[in-house]
């Protein structure tokens, strides 16, 4: 089952809580767990603008309003298309079930059809909405699925970073390895490289800007470059609100049909 | 004594110099020759049709596909065969020249399925199903999905294909061998078939030179033998052959020097040079023999000087006219053809120079051939009229018959001309029984087709292809195309939308249609992007939804099939135009067709141009416009018969066959000049037209006959080639030689005779 996790979720995942664990020598795994184990807030809403740029420089721009609520291990999310006009009010809803083996539930509402439909797909290595992000890239991969190794320390944008190489335990995984640049102390990923099955660089993720909202780190602009396909995706978040309290009844088929104004 | 005569004193030096230069050119050929096999390099890059096609090919990643079919007579739905399909797919994906996403098979295909409950886009399988239930479920899923059933799995379920689109400019013989090796490693118990345009091209590129290597020595051998029979002199044979050989070496050496690559049409250069070059030597030897016959015991030097004195002019005129004729190919838009024209012209001039310099030099060093041995010579004394005399009289006694016969031949040829068809097919280069044709037939019988043709629908406005009216018209066009026998299938955005519309409406066949509203289409497309592989859509629609790619699968790559498709599409042009949509074509099959037509058009233009040039040159050389007109008859007749026979015998016009008609210019004009020159010379000494005719026929006619016999017998060897195009080459060259010969000695001779040129009112004694 395909999982839809919001860009925000990923941003939050990448941006770890401030404050160090104290110990000076951290293992690769510990670093990645710090990145993963961060408070993300009870709920988050924002406007996501996704710009897809193909090798010829043509662009597709999509604007989505999204709402996510944390239910402990589980998570519910609903998103509404704002633009382009011909897909306005198309909505998606995902209920994902954290660590349990239960597959995600996923619905789509197409206004032209006036019906809510369930959709599904097989793999987490599928791309999210035609972008260069897979569902896994969006942040739901558990640190324990990979083995991690610190391969160096580097300065990026004036920030001291650990360089961590992660190799999947399952050799059939989509990537042969990834390399992350994690800001020391803040535990935000600043950059990540993805290598394909043949060990060649496939994609580079770059964080352009991030800020604190209600005490939580949120990355507000990032870019994924698929260097092999010469295709890229820019994701920008605006109007981010955390902890405003979203009602449970917001994540329902009725809401999908109703849409937002 | 003219310049050529003076050169005799330096015979050794001349031979030495020529050999040194030849050595230099041989070195150039060895080090600098570069074969150009990439067909894209042949096409004029700036031609709008190619520019557009290349643009569309990049936009939609339209590439020639290699099709590997896996056949299992017990059906493909068993773990073994499914595993092979998966492994083969993965092997091909790993190849350097193939993008991972450019391999299509049951293993990679998206299965858009639906139910009351929703829509899913899944692979058909990732782990190979083993249990009977799972296998059966897969079978059911394939059968119920039009997007794969009949497309990647045959309807009898005995075979499945793996299609790999290869990147631009990576196909070469190494790649070809690698693909075949990989594919055939999966043989047994399944049968493996490999087809597709690159494979056909690759096989051709491999077998054609092999065949040439086998045929060329045989051709030369036969020419050697026939030259020996005719000249009865080893010296003569060697000198004649040397002229041809050296002109070829110099020509290819010069090409290497200028870094001009050797194209496939360049293989016609030696063929032209053999046909034309041999003529010069034969005419010289013919004259020499006749001189020695008349003046037995003549001094070597006198004999050679007389030969030069009498023959340098016609040989030179013939060569210049021929060369200028070939230069008319410069009007072609196609560079390989231009080069063919320039370098053949150079080679012809070279052959002329070698004939006029090397043959006298060689004779003066190695001595004259023995007299009285020349074929047809011995019967001279027997009191019987020589055949040439009887022939000349026969022609003149049957004027009407000659004219009627020639007119009939020309008439039939003109009729044949209307039936000439262009073919840019690669496959037709092989016998129907050849394994490559059989493979192709197997895949065509079981799947949509091995050839594809791309229709590019374009609009100025973004989102035009979300308009239901446009998509319905496209769907309608696809249905019309589907009625053509040659069309196996067509595929475009409409197929995705119809499938999704049906799936989203509980698999109800009633909804296997284009959705009604623009929004619905946009939403389906969005849905597909979210659920499936977005790359799949990139090959049918551009990013802005303003250009769409409709792929038509054809069961044949011949030009008639492509043209039948084009004509159906053209019927839709105005309706699409009403919706603001323009139609263009793309793909290698289409480019090959345009290319062939360009070559043909160029060839016709340059033939016409060269005829005009020849008329002008002959008029200047002989100072009579009537000679110009009469002298051009052999060329004209040869060209008409050449194309007429092609039409009648259904020999398709392709780049090579079209260029063979150039031989008409080369040979036709040579024969005309030699004959007219002889006729003119003899008319200076006699006012008896019949006498002059006999003599001209005896002297020149005989040389013409010998030349034709030598070349025809050599080229008939090609009839034994395993390759239809090489057989056609042999037949056409022989035919052209024969027509030129027959045309010169019958109708041209007759008209020359009847025109009373050189005999006006007793001004000659």
Write structural notes for this entry:
The complex is a heterodimer of chains A (261) and B (765). Chain A is 11% helix and 48% strand. Chain A has 261 residues and is mostly beta strands. Chain A has a 13-stranded antiparallel sheet with strand order 6-5-4-3-2-1-13-12-11-10-9-8-7. In chain A, strand 9 and strand 10 form a beta hairpin. Chain A is globular and about 55 Å long. Chain B folds into three domains: 392 residues, Multidrug efflux transporter AcrB transmembrane domain (Multidrug efflux transporter AcrB transmembrane fold), CATH 1.20.1640.10; 142 residues, no CATH class; 141 residues, Alpha-Beta Plaits (2-Layer Sandwich), CATH 3.30.70. By secondary structure, chain B is of the alpha+beta class. In chain B, the strands form three sheets. In chain B, strands 2-5-1-6 form a four-stranded antiparallel sheet, with helices on both faces. A four-stranded antiparallel sheet of chain B has the order 8-9-7-10. A two-stranded antiparallel ribbon of chain B has the order 3-4. Helix content of chain B is 62%, strand content 8%. Strand 6 of chain A pairs parallel with strand 4 of chain B.
């Amino acid at each position: 089952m395909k999982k839809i996790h919001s860009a925000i979720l990923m941003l939050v995942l990448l941006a770890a809580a401030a404050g160090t664990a104290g110990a000076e020598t951290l293992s690769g795994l510990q670093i990645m767990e710090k990145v993963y184990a961060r408070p993300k807030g009870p709920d988050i809403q924002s406007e996501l603008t996704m710009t897809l740029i193909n090798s010829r420089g043509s662009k597709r721009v999509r604007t989505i309003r999204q709402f996510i609520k944390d239910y402990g291990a589980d998570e519910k999310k609903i998103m509404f298309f704002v633009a382009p006009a011909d897909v306005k009010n198309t909505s998606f809803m995902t209920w994902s079930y954290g660590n349990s083996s239960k597959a995600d539930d996923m619905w789509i509402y197409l206004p032209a059809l006036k019906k809510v439909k369930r959709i599904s797909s097989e793999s987490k290595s599928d791309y999210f909405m035609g972008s260069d992000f897979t569902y896994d890239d969006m942040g739901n991969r558990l640190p324990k699925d990979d083995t991690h190794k610190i391969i160096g320390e580097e300065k990026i944008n004036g920030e001291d970073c650990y360089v961590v190489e992660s190799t999947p335990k399952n050799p059939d995984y989509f990537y042969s390895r990834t390399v992350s640049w994690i800001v020391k102390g803040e535990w935000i990923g600043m950059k990540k490289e993805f290598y394909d099955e043949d060990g060649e660089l496939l994609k580079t993720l770059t964080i352009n800007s991030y800020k604190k909202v209600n005490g939580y780190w949120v990355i507000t602009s990032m870019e994924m470059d698929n260097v092999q396909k010469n295709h890229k995706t820019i994701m920008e978040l605006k109007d981010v609100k955390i902890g405003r309290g979203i009602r449970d009844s917001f994540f329902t088929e009725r809401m999908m049909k109703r849409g937002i104004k | 004594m003219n310049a050529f005569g003076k050169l005799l004193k330096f015979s050794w030096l001349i031979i030495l110099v020529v050999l040194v230069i030849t050595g230099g050119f041989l070195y150039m050929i060895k080090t600098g020759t570069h074969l150009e096999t990439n067909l894209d390099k042949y096409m004029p890059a700036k031609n709008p049709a190619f520019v557009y096609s290349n643009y569309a090919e990049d936009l939609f990643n339209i590439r020639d596909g290699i099709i590997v079919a896996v056949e299992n007579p017990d059906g493909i739905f068993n773990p073994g065969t499914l595993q092979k399909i998966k492994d083969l797919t993965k092997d091909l994906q790993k190849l350097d020249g193939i993008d991972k996403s450019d391999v299509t098979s049951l293993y990679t295909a998206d299965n858009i399925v639906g139910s009351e409950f929703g829509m899913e886009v899944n692979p058909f399988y990732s782990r190979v199903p083993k249990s009977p239930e799972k296998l059966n479920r897969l079978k059911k899923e394939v059968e119920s999905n039009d997007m794969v059933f009949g497309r990647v799995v045959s309807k009898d379920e005995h075979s499945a294909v793996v299609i790999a689109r290869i990147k631009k400019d990576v196909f070469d013989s190494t790649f070809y061998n690698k693909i075949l090796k990989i594919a055939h490693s999966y043989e047994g118990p399944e049968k493996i078939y490999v087809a597709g345009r690159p494979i056909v091209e690759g096989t051709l590129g491999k077998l054609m030179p092999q065949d040439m290597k086998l045929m060329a020595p045989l051709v030369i051998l036969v020419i050697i033998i026939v030259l020996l029979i005719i000249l009865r002199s080893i010296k003569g044979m060697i000198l004649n052959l040397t002229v041809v050989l050296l002109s070829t070496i110099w020509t290819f050496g010069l090409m290497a020097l200028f870094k001009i690559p050797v194209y496939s049409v360049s293989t016609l250069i030696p063929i032209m040079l053999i046909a034309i070059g041999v003529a010069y030597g034969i005419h010289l030897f013919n004259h020499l023999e006749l001189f020695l016959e008349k003046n037995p015991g003549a001094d070597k030097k006198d004999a050679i000087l007389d030969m030069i004195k009498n023959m340098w002019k016609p040989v030179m005129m013939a060569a210049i006219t021929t060369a200028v004729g070939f230069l008319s190919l410069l009007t072609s838009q196609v560079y390989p053809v231009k080069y063919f024209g320039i370098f053949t012209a150079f080679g012809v001039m070279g052959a002329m120079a070698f004939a006029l310099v090397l043959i006298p030099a060689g004779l003066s060093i190695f001595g004259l051939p023995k007299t009285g041995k020349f074929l047809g010579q011995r019967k001279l004394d027997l009191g019987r009229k020589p055949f040439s005399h009887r022939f000349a009289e026969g022609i003149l006694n049957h004027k009407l018959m000659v004219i009627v016969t020639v007119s009939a031949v020309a008439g039939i040829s003109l009729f044949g001309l209307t039936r000439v068809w262009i073919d840019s097919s690669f496959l037709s280069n092989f016998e129907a029984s050849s394994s490559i044709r059989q493979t192709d037939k197997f895949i065509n019988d079981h799947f949509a087709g091995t050839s594809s043709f791309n229709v590019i629908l374009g609009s100025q406005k973004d989102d035009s292809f979300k308009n239901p009216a446009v998509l319905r018209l496209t769907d309608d066009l696809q249905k019309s195309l589907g009625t053509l026998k040659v069309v196996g299938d067509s595929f475009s955005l409409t197929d995705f939308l119809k499938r999704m519309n049906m799936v989203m409406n509980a698999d109800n066949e009633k909804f296997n249609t284009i959705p009604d509203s623009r929004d619905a289409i946009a939403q389906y497309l969005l849905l597909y992007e979210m659920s499936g592989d977005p790359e799949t859509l990139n090959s049918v629609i551009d990013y802005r939804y303003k250009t769409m790619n409709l792929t038509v699968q054809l069961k044949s790559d011949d030009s008639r099939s492509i043209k039948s498709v084009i004509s159906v599409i053209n019927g839709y042009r105005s309706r699409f135009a009403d919706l603001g949509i323009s139609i263009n074509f793309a793909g290698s099959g289409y480019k090959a067709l345009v290319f062939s037509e360009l070559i043909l058009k160029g060839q016709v233009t340059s033939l016409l141009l060269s005829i005009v040039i020849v008329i002008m040159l002959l008029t200047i050389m002989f100072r009579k416009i009537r000679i110009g007109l009469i002298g051009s008859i052999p060329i004209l007749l040869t060209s008409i018969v050449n194309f007429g026979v092609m039409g009648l015998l259904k020999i398709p016009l392709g780049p090579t066959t079209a260029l063979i008609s150039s031989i008409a210019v080369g040979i036709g004009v040579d024969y005309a000049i030699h004959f007219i020159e002889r006729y003119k010379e003899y008319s200076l000494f006699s006012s008896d037209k019949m006498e002059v005719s006999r003599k001209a026929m005896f002297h020149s006619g005989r040389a013409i006959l010998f030349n034709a016999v030598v070349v025809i017998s050599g080229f008939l060897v090609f009839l034994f080639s395993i390759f239809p195009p090489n057989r056609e080459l042999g037949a056409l060259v022989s035919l052209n030689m024969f027509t030129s010969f027959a045309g010169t000695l019958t109708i041209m001779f007759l008209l020359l005779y009847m025109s009373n040129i050189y005999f006006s009112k007793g001004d000659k004694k």
